[in-house]
Amino acid sequence: MQLKSLTHISIMSVIISICAWLTIPAAVPFTMQTFGVFFALLFLGGKKGTVSIIIYLLLGALGLPVFSGFSGGLGHIFGATGGYMLGFLLTGLLYMLFEKLFGKSLKFAVLSLVSGLFVCYAFGTVWFSIYKDNMGLLPAFWLCVAPFIIPDLLKLALAVIVAEKIKKAPV
What is the DSSP letter of 63? Predict the structure, then answer.
């Protein structure tokens, strides 16, 4: 990879981290993390955006305080909300698949991110339910997904606007 690509990937990993720090505490914290993931994928594309997500997760796994609440460590990845964090990686992989199948149009990018968000919700909710002594999917959905649907869709819209503006900006 070129130095410019490596720099962009690194910056996006940092942006995801900063977005994770912007937190409103709850059972599953409200953060801007999903904005960071959406923005990384929209700005860098599937492959590089997914690499930035992987780096973010690896930094957190190594104990750097990149997760919500300035936390890090494997305990967070394998904890109650770890399925949602790993769901970000699934979102990136799905984005890559959509790019490969449908090209890089904005319409399919948004469709892939909405689909990726659904996959992230599903994976994270099953994970949370199992972690919380098989709490049940419906209670886990109401606790961990329902309050986030509209905010996450707004973050997606904001990521589209910001990414498109930055892509069009003169370098």
Answer: T
Distance CA 4, CA 132 (A): 43
Which residues, other chains included, contact 57 with Cβ-Cβ below 8 Å and sequence gap of 6+? 77, 85, 86, 88, 89
Does residue 61 contact residue 77 with C-beta atoms inside 8 Å? yes
Q: What does pTM read for this prediction? A: 0.94
DSSP state of 25: -
pLDDT single digits (tens) 45-55: 999 999 999 99
CB 83 within 8 A of CB 123: yes
* Beta bridge mates, 23: 31
